[in-house]
Write a structure and sequence with these properties.
With 323 residues, this protein is α/β, with parallel strands linked by helices. The protein is built from 10 helices and 15 strands. Helix 1 packs across helix 8, helix 6 packs across helix 7 and helix 8 runs antiparallel to helix 9.
């Protein structure tokens, strides 16, 4: 194994706003399909894109474009240097020191087919099956401890390997968040053992209901408040909501046509965390997240439509004028 950061600037003394730990994917995205894909049929489209994929990439790009100093920690294959997706990530101002290059596995690959506002995906990612092993790497731990906030964007496996790191970060005064998705193999007690160390978690509505066993998003939010300081639930076209100190905050998404919903939730995370790290109140954190998520879904690939600071301010002003 080797470091993937040899071609980037040295950041040994840097203090990051945000460091994101998680899985990187090369995404091959087919969109604007005329019909819903079905087994045994071939569908053709002129709309195709190769883009950086996974929660790590899209959340990091969203935060970085808005002006947050952002680093990532992930594992890629030795093929990464020749991949347009990894090279595209290098143009986003992200620090990749402490990332690991595997000689054994290829970089993870996802094929996504976007139909109307939904999508289906197939992924090959043996390289990510034990990504939490990176948490025992000294260079990785040093990088995490140089962040004001650490966000985990990957599937949750083997919780016992996460807990010591999460405790260390919290004891160092570093806030922590996670977007783990939903793993039915884990018990509620195992999930709780992880998320209780988090400032935020970012499930979508279906994930929140699955985690808590609640019948609707509001009941799921109330249950998650017992586990996490500030639970956030993403509601897709209906925006997002959170609970802080027993109070519910809710903000709508942008009224905008959805082209490809792939990665919109990850983009939300990046916008929300950027706003939080720059002192925004809860409503503005939700607005920033919703703006990034909505603009992400308006373009293919998850990151092509993400805003810069000026565009974010313009949309924020518009949303505050809504009745």
């Amino acid at each position: 194994m080797s470091s993937a950061g040899s071609k980037t600037r040295s950041s040994a003394a840097s203090k990051f706003d945000l460091v994101i730990f998680g899985e990187f994917f090369s995404d091959m995205i087919f969109y604007q399909l005329r019909n819903q894909p079905r087994f045994g049929e071939e569908i053709k489209t002129d709309s195709f894109l190769i883009a950086p994929g996974g929660g790590l990439a899209r959340t990091a790009i969203a935060a970085s474009r808005l002006g947050s100093s952002t680093g990532i920690v992930t594992r890629v294959g030795s093929d990464a240097a020749g991949l347009p997706t990894w090279n595209a990530l290098m143009t986003e101002g992200l620090d990749v020191t402490a990332c690991e290059v595997s000689e054994e596995y290829a970089t993870a690959l996802t094929v996504s087919m976007a139909y109307r506002s939904n999508r289906m995906m197939v992924t090959h990612d043996p390289i990510n099956q034990r990504i939490e092993d990176l948490l025992s790497n000294r260079a990785v731990l040093q990088k995490l401890h140089r962040a004001r906030h650490v966000h985990f964007a990957c599937a949750l496996r083997r919780p016992k390997q996460w807990i010591p790191v999460l405790k260390q970060l919290r004891e160092a005064g570093i806030t922590v968040s996670a977007d783990f998705g939903w793993n039915p193999d884990l018990s509620p007690s195992q999930i709780h053992s992880i998320v209780r160390h988090c400032e935020f978690i970012f499930p979508n509505e279906n994930e929140a209901k699955a985690i808590t066993g609640a019948s609707d998003a509001m009941r799921a939010l109330e249950k998650l408040q017992d586990w996490v300081k500030v639970p956030v639930i993403k509601l897709g076209r209906r925006g997002a909501m959170l609970m802080a100190d027993g109070k519910v905050y809710r903000e709508p998404a942008l009224s905008i046509a959805v082209l490809d919903a792939t990665g919109a939730g990850d983009a939300f995370d990046g916008g929300f965390l950027h706003a939080f790290l720059h002192g925004a109140d809860w409503n503005d954190c939700l607005r920033a997240g919703n703006i990034c998520g909505s603009l992400s879904a308006a373009y293919p690939g998850g990151s092509h439509g993400l805003p810069g600071p000026k565009e974010l301010r313009q949309y924020m002003a518009q949303m505050k004028k809504r009745p």
